[in-house]
Design brief:
336 residues, alpha/beta, Rossmann fold, seven-stranded parallel beta sheet, 11 helices
Length: 336
Amino acid sequence: MRKILMYTVRPDEHPAIRAWARKNGYQVDTNTEPMTADTAELAKGYDGVVVQQHAPMNDPEIFKKLKSYGMKQYTTRTTGYENINVKAAEENGLTVTNVPAYSPRSVSELVLAHVMWLVRHMGIVTAREAHGDFSWGGVEAKEIHTMTVGIIGAGKIGSAVARIFRALGSNVIANDPIHRPELNDTVTYVDKKTLFATADIVTCHTPLTPETEHMINKDTLKSMKKSAFLINCSRGQVVDTGALVDALNNKEIAGAAIDTFEGEEKIVQNDLSGKPLNNDNLEKLLAMPNVNVSPHVGFYTEVAVENMVDIALDDVATILDGKKSLHEVHALTKGN
């Protein structure tokens, strides 16, 4: 019987893991350890590995050890893989795979929740009520169908976001190098300059690449409407957090909601009650009533968790069977 080891497994993943193992006749063992050069030794004697973590997996020693154990693959049960040293993995003969589309609706529904929270000024209302202020001043809201939603990155998740807002009657514009025919009745494609200048809501759904790092910066924020809201449910480094703080303090935009943020790898999934966050920009954002922060939970639904487990384990089995996975990823370089 083939054996797979899954790292950093949460309790909510166990039912899907057990179901997959029974269905496919594999032994799937789990641990709660992050993948490091030291914990890579736990994979000795296994045929495949699956990881999931925010912390970097850059140490080439990880992949050298896995190669010495006879591993052929390195699978992350996440969409993002910028924290993996893919080049080192490939140099050691490991095929790296990710889960590019676990449930686009899971993220798109969180985007909708964040947008509604911002548009209806719920953070401001809640902050006032905490002090006994139930007045209406300054919280008159627009209705979603009167607003233009600008989507940067209209892939699977961005497409799901577009369809939700189009169904609500919004004008939806998008910027993406790939124009999808199936979105012809949903979005109008525009250049980034037009999107930033036109959209009432700007929502980011791009991978993290050298080209998208700090794509949202002081210049792009200045080019947005002062009444506009920014949403980031993609990758933290897509937004220059310091520039976002400045833009909000200077009232260059009306508000923001972020599910991912720079420096999150030591924060998300952890209970830091009563402890310092050691992230000045995040603390400033958390103190603002026109900012909503969620701890990278866009993916976190029952459907998505099951899909992430199933797709990741299916990829391991595919590669162990000598076949090619549809979800292979490769090292990113400037200009790719």
